[in-house]
Amino acid sequence: MNSKAVIVTVIGVLIGAIGGYAYYHFIGCASGSCAITSKPLNATLYGGLMGGLLFNIFVPKPKQEK
């Protein structure tokens, strides 16, 4: 991976983590039995993972020489 790919992925992880925590804070899980949204750490880590994967889609692949 080149530096541009790493930067885009890290930005995605940060945005996803913020989004995951915001989801926990504003929506959350009332009963406490939800696996992801019952704890802020779980929601933040899951959001970071999903954000990193989503933003990694937008990294251009290097051209292959023939």
Please provide a written account of the structure.
The structure is a single chain. It contains two helices and no strands. Helix 1 packs antiparallel against helix 2. It is elongated, with a radius of gyration of 15 Å. The model has no long low-confidence stretch (mean pLDDT 91). Pfam families: DUF6132.
Short description:
This is DUF6132 family protein. The protein is mostly helical.
Rough shape?
A: elongated
Output the number of helix runs.
2
Order of helices and strands: HH
Chain-averaged pLDDT? 91
Radius of gyration: 15 Å
Largest sheet: none
Question: Uncertain regions: pLDDT < 50 for 5+ in a row?
Answer: none
Q: Report the β-strand fraction as a percent range.
A: under 5%
Structural class: mainly alpha
Q: How far is it from the N-terminal to the C-terminal residue, by CA? A: 20 Å
The helix fraction, in percent, is 55-70%
Protein name: DUF6132 family protein
Keywords: Membrane, Transmembrane, Transmembrane helix
InterPro entries: DUF6132
Pfam families: DUF6132
